[in-house]
Amino acid sequence: MSLAEVAGFRARLPRGEGPWAWLAAGSVALSLLMLGGLLTLIAVRGLGHFWPASVSLVELDDGQLLAGRAVRELPLATGQGRERLYFTGNRDIDGHVWQWVAVDRIVASEQPRELVVLERVRYGDFIGRLVDVRPAGSHVQGVGGGEVAWAALQARLAAVDALRDERDDLQRNVIQPLVRQLEKDPGDTAARRGLAVANDRIRGLQDAMQAEVVVLQSVDGRRLVLTLAEVLRAWRPNAMSLPEKMGAWVQGVWRFLSEGPRVANTAGGVWPAIFGTVLMVLLMSVLVTPFGVLAAVYLNEVAHQGHLTHWVRIAVRNLAGVPSIVYGVFGLGVFVYGIGGSIDEWFFSDQLPSPTFGTGGLLWASLTLALLTLPVVIVATEEGLARIPDHQREGALALGATRLEMLTRVVLPMAVPAMLTGVILAIARAAGEVAPLMLVGVAKLAPQVPVDGEFPFLHLDRKFMHLGYHVYDTAFHGDDIQAAMPMVYATALLLVLVVLVLNLTAIFLRHYLRARHGALSRH
Amino acid sequence: MIKLFPVSSSTQSPRRHLFDRLATGLIAAGGIGVILAVLAIGAFLAVEVIPALFSGVLDKERITLSLTPLAWGTLKAAFWALVFAIPMALGAAIHSAVYMSSRLRSRIKPTLELMEALPGVVIGFVAGLVLAPWVERHLAGAFALLLVMPLGILLAGGLRWSLSSSMRKRLPLAWAGLWLVPWLAVLGLLALEVSPWLEAWLFGGDLRGWLDTELGIDYASRNALIVGLAMGFAVMPSVYALAEDALSGVPTSLGEGAQAMGATRWQSLWKVVLPAAAPGVFAAVMIGAGRAVGETMIVLMASGNTALMSLSPLEGMRSMAAGIAIEMPEAVPGSDAYRLLILAALLLFLFTFLVNTLAELVRSRLRRRYRRLGDRS
Amino acid sequence: MPELPPSLLSLDRPGSALSNSTGPIIDFAPDASCLDVEGLSLAYGGKPALRDLTLRVPRQRVTAFIGPSGCGKSTLLRALNRLHDLDETVSRQGSIRLEGQEIHAPEVAVDELRRRVGMVFQAPNPFPMSIYENVAFGLRLQGGMSRRRMNDIVEWALEAAALWGEVKDRLRASAWSLSIGQQQRLVIARTLAVRPEVLLLDEPASALDPISTLKIEELIRSLKSQLTLVLVTHNMQQAARVSDYTAFLHDGELVEYAPTASLFTNPRLARTENYITGRMA
């Protein structure tokens, strides 16, 4: 009887597998649905944030006008009708950026081309009309409104951007080194003169950036005057074609990845957090790889395979299941307060009581996570070593190799994919781990990246930003959670992507490893 | 005939031997050192806390007062997480070990493995800031979803019988894990559309108010159910993976024997396979419990972090792990508060370590048993 | 086949009457022994595998160990280059001498011993490297060898293992790309490259097809002008085809040890005859 016939035979039976079998199948479907839902939610919200969505001009039944981006629509709590949420911006004029509107009250809604959205240094977005671009202090009409003003604004913003870059460059490459120079040698007159010149130049740049103002008007008629220095970007979403919108989207994503956070982490980018996460994880893998491999080689190749080794192996395996927060407590107690405190007493006593290493920092965070992921690397490497057939080892020994030569020339090269798998899994776990970092060194906002041009270049004692903690902190400790949500979504998406890509790499590597050893053990 | 090739005697031997002995010694020393460092965690926690316990610096009353609500919160969160995770994980494990087509299975297993890798902070964020406010606003819809999902699955199984046999072949049970997904999605959306009318009809349009006035239940936006759902989602993949291993490790001859006598696959699973794999399934649940007890970020973000001791699943709580994460950075080293937090960490450590060791022992015994069974057949 | 040493021919034979005695019958007194095993007992974790075994392996001859599985023939072979050192549960009594020197003496370096007493295993175990690197592996361990000389030795070893013609154009290819039979000859070449004095072969052809087996057997015969070869085999025909002397082991004990021709045509013990005629597995 063929398989299909068997199935057919079963299907003709009066009873099926019963309800429980279906519930079991349903739980697979349900978990897939939940996983898919979660990923879709994060992806759509995270990526949608950068899309220059159209702005509607809405007139309500009482004559009130508002301009904003429709965010979502829900049924009213009373059960009759629906209400719509608009993002209206203009925090400095209105005092709020969100507005719920009952759909019944909307008399007219259109999308005029001339509505502009401005991303500003303070107070978030502005949504309204562009009236004029003119020199500061002047009350005379400048270029006027309409297309002319829009073109002028674009040109001026590009110029201001160039000025801003020049200022930042000057700050970083001229002023900061000179200040450090003067700290060491206050009598250095050449440096003092250089600093004065640079400061003058910066003042000149600031003035140039504030030389012109842009005059704006909200849709309900209130005016706002901003210097160009306060405007970061301007766009007219209703006038943009699809390719233009896509260009703006790519640009937005790029700025998110490459810039630092602004306005208490609710705007701007996450570059310092990406940098901090990557640096911390790199340091951690540099620490965890040799030690993990060493311990695995000892357990599998050198140690006497008795009861003690058996128990040690189980204990190491179980440490992978100990909650990460416990590792955080260990890191705080031993690394930060114990070792860090002693280092401070011995080497940095002149700076006490303000701690140098006696507080959370990059080094302690990496060490704690290395300890946390050590079991992962040990277990994966041991599995790899155990898969290598004994006759490979005997083959090397029979040629007159010593144990060390056998290990380094035959066994370890064969175990490399397993080690890599372990390290990648460790990195994936460390990248997503937040709880222990809260105890040993992550910071809400670390203006200084732990790597710079100042000796010793890599500052192990500094606090750093982390993507996962950024999600937690922005979501829970901001003033305006609604305004921060798109940022949180985008950051969460980035974190999920990093972790998933790392895990997929590990899965493929393991697959490759199994296939290769399958070929090996065939004969 | 092969000519002899001249031999050059090796001169490097003594150096090689010295090197070998040295390196072996170093590996042993390093390996033991690393292992001791890893194991030092338990020792550190004990050293910090136990002297204080015996010298009476930490009196019993204080410990009870400050740790009981946290322990309660921990267990409450873990309990609800397991309520969600265990049925889902075991159901999924049973389905993929017994019914699922092997092609689908080879795809589903890594997918769920990826689900395990999702960072807790992301799940916590979605639960605390997206799910919790949404459920608060759509309480009736959420309850309708909880009800519709199992019913919808059974309905699908029932409806399939009334289909023509050609249609039925196109929707096999072996692929049900996949084709049920759109069905459930549609049903879920339907339930959400219908729920406001149901709410208006049954509870006067305000389920939350009705709960408060009729049953006296206070509904907190971030509550144990939300935490349970989120943490269940996080714990479920690891329970699934271990339980699936245990179930699919049962020698096939056992289940086939029962089926040969006319049992359905479900009956043979229930009567033969599951009892054989029970220790492994138990170990899976234990490991899930260990994870649920120690998970920090999800509880921190999705529970209100109020140290309440209530039984109601609709109120919040605060767990030990979350308590440590919040209070530890502020605690002065050496102070009583600091020692109390370390005691909490020690309790977490001991609990998870013991639970995992137990699970590991059970699992290794089970593996030996399978090997014997496999030999005999 | 080499001629039997004259010392053997002069032994008087006790006719065709089969003896039922259990003690070892050693119909053999080689004057040029390479390996001397004396009173060797070996146990794995208390379970005896070899009991009080004494035998001599003649220089530049092929000696075969035969016997049912579990009789200890592989254990004996592995004892000859101390490969059982890896297993901590093994306990040993008695002595093994290589060219008169005790191999368990503390001053003997075990890796040097294993270089002198090479070994080829049942399943071919080339390393996951190129063909060239496999053969050069043992040479690199000793170090201090010029590139040119290493090339020469690799070529010589591959030629000695009758593999050179098949692989000379792809020395950089992975050793795992070879057929199983070629892999086994590569392993033999790899062992020959370090110029061992003794070559131990543990059922070297049991994983191979008949043609590869034939090639290996030819190779064994061609090598004995330079090496002492010890062969463990399950295959009686193979022992008869390639070996000069055969030792029959049973239950960890040496039962009968004689020139191959006489052991197969005229076994002195009933147990031996039962085995070689297939009445005992």
Automatic annotation (TrEMBL), chain B:
The chain crosses the membrane at residues 21-47, 77-100, 112-134, 140-161, 173-192, 224-243, 272-293, 337-362. Residues 71-359 form the ABC transmembrane type-1 domain. One of its GO terms (cellular component) is plasma membrane. SUPFAM superfamilies: MetI-like (SSF161098). It holds the Pfam family BPD_transp_1. It is found in: Cell membrane. It is a multi-pass membrane protein. Signal peptide: none annotated. One of its GO terms (biological process) is transmembrane transport. InterPro entries: MetI-like, MetI-like_sf. The keyword Transferase does not apply. The keyword Cytoplasm does not apply. Keywords: Membrane, Transmembrane, Transmembrane helix, Transport. It comes from the Bacteria. Its main location: membrane. Belongs to the binding-protein-dependent transport system permease family. This is ABC transporter permease. The lineage of its organism: Bacteria, Pseudomonadati, Pseudomonadota, Gammaproteobacteria, Oceanospirillales.
From TrEMBL, chain C:
It holds the Pfam family ABC_tran. GO terms for biological process: phosphate ion transmembrane transport. One of its GO terms (molecular function) is ATP binding. The keyword Protein biosynthesis does not apply. Residues 35-276 form the ABC transporter domain. Keywords: ATP-binding, Cell inner membrane, Cell membrane, Membrane, Nucleotide-binding, Phosphate transport, Translocase, Transport. GO terms for cellular component: membrane. PANTHER family: ABC TRANSPORTER I FAMILY MEMBER 17, IRON EXPORT ATP-BINDING PROTEIN FETA-RELATED. This is Phosphate ABC transporter ATP-binding protein. It comes from Billgrantia endophytica.
